[in-house]
Fold Glycosyl hydrolase.
Amino acid sequence: MKKTLMLCAALFSLQSASYAQHKNIYNKNWIDFNKNGKKEVFEDPSQEIEKRVADLISQMTMEEKTCQMATLYGYGRVLKEEMPTAEWKTKVWKDGIANIDEALNSLAYNKKAQTAYSYPFSKHAEAINTLQRWFIEETRMGIPVDFTNEGIHGLCHDRATPLPAPVNIGSTWNKSMVRQAGNIVGREAKALGYTNVYAPILDPARDQRWGRVVECYGENPFHIAELGKQMVLGIQENGVAATLKHFAVYSVPKGGRDGDARTDPHVAWRELHQIHLYPFRRVVQEAAPMGVMSSYNDYDGVPVTGSRYFLTELLREKYGFKGYIVSDSEAVEYLYSKHHVADDYKGAIRQVVEAGLDVRTNFTMPEQYIMPLRELIKEGKIAMKTIDERVAHVLRVKFRLGLFDHPYVQNTKASDQVVHTAKNEAFSAQLSRESLVLLKNEQNLLPLDAKKLKNVLITGPLAAEVNYTTSRYGPSNNPVTSVVDGIRKYLGAAAQVNYVKGCDMIDPNWPESEIIPSPLSDAEQRGIDEAVAQAKQADVIIAVVGEDEKRVGESLTRTGLNLPGRQLQLLMALHATGKPVVMVMVNGQPLTINWENRYIPAILEAWFPGPQSGTIIAETLFGDYNPGGKLPITFPKSVGQLEYNFPFKPASQAGQPSSGNNGYGKTSVNGALYPFGYGLSYTSFEYSNLQVKQTTQQAGSDIEVSVEVKNTGGRKGDDVVQLYLKDLVSSVTTYDSDLRGFERLSLLPGEQKTVKFMLKPDDLSILDKDMNWRVEPGKFRVMIGQSSEDIKLKQEFEIMP
């Protein structure tokens, strides 16, 4: 008994001493992270970051270094406890950790990760501070944690400000609004305790079947680079890191297949650099993101996450990337389990570390990576110099983020007034409005005149659906207004609004029914008949069709692009009534709506708007808002045309000869259903006075282009002025034309504005025969238009030898 009391007293004494020591590490203007009572170089905010990094690494053990090379997933993913426990002293992260992902918060539909700490926002900030405090106070070196989270359409956090899907953001073509969107994401991340946001996705969506088209800005590398740059700048101006996804060549798996495929992109060497790497190069060089995520796939047989060429030679040495590289989840394991370029997992670890990977991420305990890594070091198979380089990349970001100077959320209570404010909510609604694209408006059916309507039918499987508003990697638990509720609220008592679903999202045999048709069941026929009966009594029919959150997204690649299930049959039956039909599309990828485009008089593309979807769609259908979005991706007529994108090489989208020695005939459907950059308006615009001015005719000079745009209609409206460039003669085949500038502007009826563009040498550069970027002498054609096909004005200029 006496021994027990003595042991308890000793433990209490140690705990008290430890508490006092921890309490005393916080000094004026510096923190004693290593708890030795003196200010080290790495603890001194006045020292240069490089000196602080070198000093810290010199004091770290091999165990501490390897812990800075792995991710710990948060509660509900990997962590079993919400808050630190005594057992943590026995875990591998007793020596620290690089980052914690999804801490006390997770994806919208991950029930296992639900926690009492995600909301109110101040409670989450306090909880993150508690986690951070454990690592600072309870580990030997006290290295702060980088708290990471997704954020491609609003921060992936409980009740954060919701933004529309990235394909919506791409459809706005509004650079200033994308900068504001990034600012909101970064500001809310900072207030909640996150220090690193996995956004934006810079993958060019070059195959419309690919499930993650909804998560991309579009198909064109220049368009993606311009918007991605603004998103990064917006996030990082709040002192939060932005991590680009997914480096690289991830978005064109063979046949568009996602899920278990995630490999085998068939991309030529020059196309790799001009299309798939271009957005990453531009954004790294012009916005200096602090993070890049390496992708699952291989390129030409070499897994990207194990490629020194991609991770070191390109990203760091050529592009000048200064942040740290984190793997997509399980990308390291795939070298062994999928790509089979390593005998075992240990061999895969050696490859990725030597290639340039800094931090491994997977939904498993971090020791599964850290322990084999330590063995490789002890066996002399990975040099400590290499480890020091990888750790330095991670620590440098932590210093840049200020984690060694201000590691905690400073004012946790203020978080409740920072996250999801009324102002942010209004911005989110406007961003969704600006993403709407008017695809067809025969005889100006839209906007509808509410005063002339007595009976309105709303039908379709997406009229009352809301799951698309909370799609993957965005905020959750926000109130949602469905389309039917939004229209009912808008019209109030002015008209009778009836709702009939008409058909389900899919039929029981889908997706097999796309290749083997089956007759409608009695229940399906009754659903369509009920909609038709109501349609006969209506003045107008609003059919809300497309895809929901379960039909498009990660691992949800499609084999066909028609409307799923019985939706086309529903539309055909509604059209046969002779009543005007307005088709509202809610979808995450371009659909081959050929019959619909021919016979339905009005089509509004809404993509995946945010939770205010019903309100903004109602405002647009009834004319309170004039749609001005443009398509960021080509709509093909058939999957048989794929790949079909902009830009493309000369004659690659040509028709067929009508006569000649080499055959003729008519065997294919050609042309786009809707081209890149396409979008209509309730008003009209006129372009004039195209001016092209050169300071000199030398290759290094800037080219100033200006054009006047006038609203010639009767409504206020937005237009996106698009500048395309064509290199008329070059040493290698170049694209028929490519986007090199765009500006969205709003004009009152009769108002005119001058839009100016500045073409830089990089805009004129091509990869020559020797794979060097350069501006070749010769003639160039500037084309100004409202889409890639609707060119209004042209003018040429010349670069002299």
Observations:
- Confidence is low (pLDDT under 50) at residues 1-20.
- The two ends are 95 Å apart (CA to CA).
- DSSP finds 22 helices and 26 strands in the chain.
- The domain at 685-799 is CATH 2.60.40.10 (Immunoglobulin-like).
